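Office hours follow-up: a student asked to see two folded examples consecutively, so here they are.
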Amino acid sequence: MLSNIRIVLVQTFHPGNIGASARAMKTMGLEQLTLVTPRQFPDEEASRLAAGAEDIVDNARVVDTLEAAVEDCVQVIGASARLRNMPLPHYDEPDIMARDLVSHANEAPVALVFGRERFGLTNDEIRCCTHQVSIPANPDYGVLNLSQAVQVLAHEIFRAWRLRPDSGFNTASPRSAPLPTQQQMSQFHEHLHRVMEDVGFLTQPHARTEDHLHALFTRAQPTRKELSILRGLLNAIEQKTHPDHSADQGEK
């Protein structure tokens, strides 16, 4: 289960923070590290501060975009201050986040995403996530180092995993069908955008309609079968509006 949990660091500036984060991960049984365009990597400072977790640093996957880092994941949680202009589901308590993440990791890969040291994740990067989580801290000084944030949330994940087998700590209902990957959800949103434009639904560009629909489907967490039904509905609309065009068969 823990092998399905991925820690993603976006554009890390100081290579030492990569090593310190790897050390935090290893103490909590996590080994899957993905780096999105780190400023300097590989680097001796990263290996030095890993202090026994050099294998995680050495095996880290480096990618160019956050989309590439999480495209196969069924749940992606961005660690950030709560952005009220982003209508994504938000975990106010990290332990609840950890229970859900561990539950979904039973089915498929999941990811916990951390942003840059100075300003975290951008709005566009948050849109690649299915949820947000914040770490409760002193309101007068809630500043955490990147590796400290990784340590806190990794500990919550390890605790949820450790307690799960014997105590029924996780109360999430088991799913009867797998969730779609983020790549499949992205394809659905592209299809939805195309149809809404085609039928003239997107007439107010500043209404943030697509942001709200994105949040709606994120909260709903449709299964792969349900997503296939939605893609079939979009195909039917396209066939009605363009009967001479062959339909996109969607994700099955």
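And the second, which I mentioned at the end of office hours:
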Amino acid sequence: MYSYIKGTVEEINLDYVVIDNNNIGYKINVSSNTIKDLHLGSMAKIYTKLIVREDDMSLCGFATKEEMKMFELLTSVSKIGPKVGLSILSFASPGQLGAYILSEDVSKLSKAPGVGKKTAERIVLELKDKVDKNNVEFEPTLLSSEPIAVSKDEAVDALVALGYSSSEAKEAVDNCKKDGLNTEDIIKKSLTYIMSKSLR
């Protein structure tokens, strides 16, 4: 019904904002990641999704289309409603969530509000093949920033999580792993190596 709502930010609350558009105030439920970029009195464009239930109609809003897409994926999982979906998006960005799902990091996902181990396992099971592999971001804490004691296996696992075969990942890491590089740097160089090889 609504693709987005653009207007002045009139209220900012813990889990919702009010946007004034042509003297109509729209109450929009949002994640904390969306709230952090909003300021009272400023203009904002919020992508929206209308949630219709038997006893209620509400709007959920998102700062980006990527966040809205992740919300739609999360709420497609059984027993995850709009409220829990927004709580998960408050816990991590869409890119981080994509990385957790692709790497089957149940431990990290289960720390999100309203998500236990069983729900986290269900998220991984139902969404692993649906996550956009080009829109994931591995946290610095997952990709060691230490230049010493780099884990080759960690770099290989990250590449496999991005959709590359184990043999492709191992070959790329073997060719790119050098002393002084941290895991994140190795992964970036390995991705460049794989892409350049595919163009030969």
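Two things to take away from it. Strands lie at 4-12, 16-21, 24-29, 43-53, 56-62. Residues 35 and 73 are 21 Å apart (CA to CA).
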